[in-house]
């Protein structure tokens, strides 16, 4: 078995597969890859933690003693906005990797932002990257799409409840 030595000009840390492995093992981004129960638990923890910011704002707008329903709706909506920002960051990171893995040629920087170039992937690397997208990245993207859609429905429900009150 011979080892293939790469002569590609792209730095190893900018290769799409290496970027994927780095993203997959990072503390923040691996959250999207855990089993469903842990994923949902983390979402609920982030939402509950966001109440630290949204609760006082909602209490200032709607005194909890006089307007408990409005207070809860305002706090829940505010906490959901912060959760949405966290989920959007997750989605953007995974989307970036998804695009880089699927592309036949990728942009890279040799020494800085001012001297970038494009690298065309060899067929073996392209096939490997597309398999990774199909079996590893696409399920994460589908999960994030569903989560963001559910959050959008939650926003709509909060807006409807607020409007009805």
From TrEMBL:
Q: Where are the transmembrane segments?
A: 38-59, 71-92, 147-164
Q: Which InterPro entries does the record associate with it?
A: CGLD27-like (IPR009631)
Highest taxon of the lineage: Bacteria
- UniProt KW keywords: Membrane, Transmembrane, Transmembrane helix
Organism equals Gloeobacter kilaueensis (strain ATCC BAA-2537 / CCAP 1431/1 / ULC 316 / JS1)
The record's listing under PANTHER family reads: PROTEIN CONSERVED IN THE GREEN LINEAGE AND DIATOMS 27, CHLOROPLASTIC (PTHR34214:SF3), PTHR34214
Q: What is the lineage of its organism?
A: Bacteria, Bacillati, Cyanobacteriota, Cyanophyceae, Gloeobacterales
Q: What protein name does the entry list?
A: Ycf36 protein
